[in-house]
Amino acid sequence: MQMKRQILFFFLWGTLIFFSCQHPLSPSAAEKSIRPTLDSIITNCYQIDTLLCLERQCVNEGYRRGEMLVKYTLGKRYRESAEFEMAITTHQDALYLAEELCDTIEIINTLNQVATNYRRIGSLDEASEALYRALSLYEHFQHKEDKRAKRYMVSVLNGIGNVQNELGNREDAMYFFRRALQAEIETGNVLGQAINYSNIGSILMKEGHLDSAKQYCRLSMEANKQVHSKVGIALCHIQFGEIYEQEHLLQQALAEYKAGYDLLLHNKDRWHWFICCMSVARIYLEQGRLPEAARYIEEGFREADSMKSLRSLCDAYYLKSEYEEKCGRYDEAQRFFKLAVAYSDSISNEKNMNLMQNLRVNFEREKAQQSALVMQTAQENQRQFYLIVILVLVTVAISVVLFLLGLHLRSRRRYIDELEQKNKELLKMHHRLEKSEQMKNLFIQNISHELRTPLNAISGFSQLMASADQLGEEERRLCSSSILRNIDLLTKLVNDILDLSAMETGQIEIRTSGMSVQELLRNVAAQMAAQIPQDVELKLDLPDEPLCFASDEKRLNQILINLLSNACKNTTEGCITMSASARENGIVCFAVSDTGCGIPTEKAEVIFERFEKLDRYKQGSGIGLSICRIIAEALGGKIYLDTSYHGGARFVVEIPLKE
Description:
This protein has 659 residues and is an alpha+beta fold. The protein has 22 helices and 7 strands.
């Protein structure tokens, strides 16, 4: 046991040292940081010597709130040990600290503890004064809905009810007990409900309503068992014993009293153990079992003398007097009876009754004055409310005007923004129209040139064939071949223009089918074989393995022929290479490379625009690459100029590989 105390002491001491060694704080901040830990440690500490050490540590560290909590808990431990004088002194010190800290809730709580101490020793005047002071503080407290304040206030109501009960004012006591019970039910405090069920049952028992008293006692027993309150269960046994005693069921009463006695025998609550002890002795006296009664009277007498409680001594002397009378020692019985009467007069004399009534009258008067002040304050608040309402209405009116003005300005601003936006759109449209005009002129120029050249050739060769009878067979064949070639050029030009127009309006038609890459390249090479310049070689770089995929063969054929056609126009010697390969990312890559004049890097994107030509004097409409890009994108791929290629030009077409 000593080892456990030492361990607990060092734990508490270490906790305080830890908090005191933290970064320096202001007193309020320090208290705020340590309060939760102290609250938990102090409340769960039951060793008086440990609490005394903790009190010294709080004083040294300057934690006033911690010191107050220690004194509050220490006073409860003294009372549980029946050291009522020490309990009163310690709780008075805690009260001074609570007043110093201006903590109204703790003042109410501590006043209730002070009153409990006085009530236990029979000083009902001091108990009443403390309780009504706590009640008055609560009535003036602004935060009445605070949970702690309400809980402590219920305890105060319970205390006032107990004092009234001991003075014999059962009607007033019942009023306060019922108020306390209702508040405990609202807050859900089961232990508080158990206490007040028991108090109400006690009054009903004194008034002779034994069945109702039993019912309330059962409710109290159930609530105490629910919260595992050993003291509460013992008190219920005492109350059942008193009921059975009134019913003259002495054996049942004795069993209940002994059950309470056994529960509290090793408990620190000596006050309620004393009640059990005296009750057992009283039953033994009524049964005529004097030796057993003598044992319990002596135990109770020693406890009452150590507690220095007027009420306990009064009860002990009454029983002692009755015991001596049954033993035939009438002188001793008379002496003890006189002592009991003296103590009883000290507890419930007329002065105490008058003081209790005066305190209540003063409280009611103060409450009435407070109500009048509240009413006056309410009237003043009402006038202020009307003034505030007027100010609010004026403010709202001004706000509405400002809001409407803001809406007007916002609407005007939006209108201006819309005008500016439309001006920008008109300007963009103007630029587009200008560009369209330029493109139209450029188109007309290109088309005029491209149409005039083959038409002139067709016209010239036709006239030559019609007017020259002396032409031989070979000359006629050459003229006919030239006419057909220029007709093909015209047809291709018209088809390109129609394709571009359809594609730009989204009317391009894609027909997917399976094809062989090798077969596609061979067909394109065969179609372009006649157009390859004399000093230029056409090479095919085909995949080693057969490569088949799904796409629009006609459109791919159109792209490759356009690329080969451009390569033939710009290559006078060397070679033109057409290749295909499959990449790991699911792409079929077609490439057309030549050894011609090449294309500048900065023109890599420009050449894909409509009617764009690097050499205005070379044959071509300038729309072939635009058509190629539109087709490639429609097939889900892309076309671009490989700027890393040197020694000519290299165009790459990438098409997704579909099985």
